Every structure is written in structure tokens, then in C-alpha cells.
Please model this.
Amino acid sequence: MRGIIQKAISGFFYVKCDSVVYECKARGSFRAKGMTPLAGDVVEFSLQGEKGVVEEIIDRSNFLIRPPVANVTRMFIVSSMQMPSPNTLLIDRQLSICEKKGIEPVLVFNKTDMKTAEYYEDIYKKAGFITVITSCKDKTGVEQLKGLLCEGINLFTGNTGVGKSSLLNLLFPELDLKTGEVSEKLGRGRHTTRTAELFEVENGVYIADTAGFSTFDIESYETVLKDELPYTFKEFGDYIGDCKFTSCSHTTEKGCAVIAAVNEGKIHPERHKNYCTLYDEIKDLREWNIKQK
Model:
């Protein structure tokens, strides 16, 4: 039998097949191969009475280790305008990973009833990203957001406290996801969920809420090497080949076409600044240095 894992908890995998969800364990051979079934995996499984056994993981298009989800089609990167305010460096880390993994990103700026998102719209629309302005309070942008859900797995991510679960509850009230109040003292949200779980909201359309992950934790779990990094900033693509030196890092060199594009207003300086920060963090990393988990 074939189905999709909707949730994985403590070694149990809940596989949906033909509108029925089966509780399954995994073959011990997965551990020997260094593989773990994840939410979003399409799997072959067999039944032993009412319980199931995951026999095989069908080839993945992509996967993330934290949050632990496979075969993501579109990632909704949610930021809030206050408590916590948007962190463009974190956003650009996520966008870089999306580009590397072949995931289409959508940027969501929430709580715009508290503060305008015009500055951030300018940064990311200039770079060519889909950007949505939302407010749970007055339901701004909710229908536009719903229209962007695509067939496959739509993952919602971002810092805790930005309103991911509140947005999903507005989109699909029947989900009744837990939400956590933001601590004014700490300026961050309390964890409300500890696992990634898929919900089928329409035929073939899944959403994944990843509340409970305080950060994307990209430094530990997902890394882009320095030679890959320029190509994960998609607006650099028109200029990379025009640099004076083929070894150009696009950070400080004279004759860099990317820097020239920044100076001419074709690339937003905030994006380039974050690129330079990321490059500096990974410039000495090699593939064998990356921590595998």
C-alpha cells in the first residue's frame, strides 16, 4: 500500500491512504541506512492486523531536517511587524535554503495593523519574490494568502510569535490549531507545538504548521556552501557572469558586477548586506565540515 506520512511522533508514523490513517512503525533497515521517515514522505507500507509497517520511502524531491518535513512544494515565510519585528537576515537564510532545495518561497508580513510593511515589501518585491501583507485582526490579505496555497505541501515557518497558527486558523477554522500568546517581557512566543504535522485542507493540498521551532536553526541543520551562495540570491543571476574576475566573491571586489548593480539601485542594499554576512559565516566551510544529522 502507498500513502503519505502526516505526522511522526516518537517512532510512530501516521500514514494516510485512501482517506484512512494508519499507525505504522518503520523497518529497522532505515536506521542502518541512516534514514528517518518524515512528515511529507510518500511511503510504501504493509499491514499487520490494524497496524502498519513502513517498508520503503519513495524518492524525495527535497527534505528539511529542522523542521522535519519532506517534499515541500511551497514555503510561506511568516514575519510579524512587531513582537518580534522582521529579521531580514533570518528571512534571507530561509530564502537561500529554498533556492537550494527547489522550494518556492512566499513572504508573509503579518500584524500590519500595528505597523506598515512597506520597507520590507520594497526589498523583496525588488528581488522578485511573492509578498503578501496580512493582519489577523482585520483579516487583511487572508484570501490572497489562501489563493497561493498550491497542490502539494505548503509549509508555514518563521519565528515563534509571528502568528503562523493564527493565520492558519483564519484560513481553515476547522483546524483549530493551538496558538501561543507573545511574552511582552521576552518579546518572543511560547512554543505551542513540538512536531511538524500535515493537514489536508483540499484534495491534494496539504499545509504544515511548524510552531514549536523557535528558529529555522539553519546554522546547525541546513548549510549552503560559499560557491553555491551567490546562486541562491536569485537577483544576482543577471550580473554574476559580468564580474571582472571569475573568482569574485561579490562582497568587496573592484570590478564586481553585483556590487555595481547594488550601487545602481538594481539590487536592494539590504539583500547584499545580508549576503555578505552569510558569506563571511561560511567562507571557510567545506562540504566535509558540515554537520550531518
